[in-house]
Amino acid sequence: MTLLSVNVNKVALVRNSRDIGIPSVTEAARICVDAGAHGITVHPRPDMRHIRPSDVYELGEMLTVEFNIEGNPFAGPVGDYPGFMTIVRKVRPAQCTLVPDTPGQLTSDHGWDLAKDGQRVGPLVSQLKELGIRVSMFMDPDPAQIERASQVGADRIELYTEPYARAHEQGRPDEQLARYAAAANTAQQLGLGVNAGHDLNLDNLGKFITIGGILEVSIGHALICEALKEGLGRTVKQYLKILRA
Which of 62, 195, 222, 243: disulfide with 158, CB 3.0–4.6 Å? Predict the structure, then answer.
């Protein structure tokens, strides 16, 4: 069975629009876990536009399921942000997913170019593994780059799935699906575990995991948006019940 890790960044994004502490990131994580989620994912960025270091520390203390911290290992201290590696060393999550995002990037939108960054990232992969942290590299479905992920010492890759999601929206997912199946097969032959994430949702997830061997999917934005549709009506009914009483 493919495991689900829920990314709670968007909960923090809404929370940060006010200064009253709601919605609570830890409470949202608890709801997800109680509902059966196998893990929680966060991506603390230097601009702290959603998840803050304090959120990561609080989650690290409370979670009894897998904690996956995503981010760029080269992101150093900026203001109240202590640096990605500092956060991870303090929390020691079960998994760390290394992502090549830049400070001004809206969201993660490409995998690593390890022909360029492999020599720099390799020592950091080693440091994380020495802490007992499983290391996953955020990758495009490119067999040559996936081979380099194995060479830098990664335990897993996370396939960046937005191209598949866009193709699925347009009613032509099969060509992209074949690319991802080939990439997953390459990784597995190299002894790498395979995760996946980015724009997977209720409509496209079922078809994607037919490629087989996907250990874990990390889903945040779509899941939170879907929760607004599936959960909001029930919440309104609860408010009306109080008013009618």
Answer: 195
